Amino acid sequence: MQFCDDCGSMMKADGDRMVCTNCEAATDRDRDREAEFITTESQIDDDVIESSKDANFEGKPKSTDVVCDECGTQEAWYTLKQTASADEPPTRFFKCTECGHRWREYN
Question: Which CATH number characterizes residue 79's domain?
Answer without folding.
Answer: 2.20.25.10
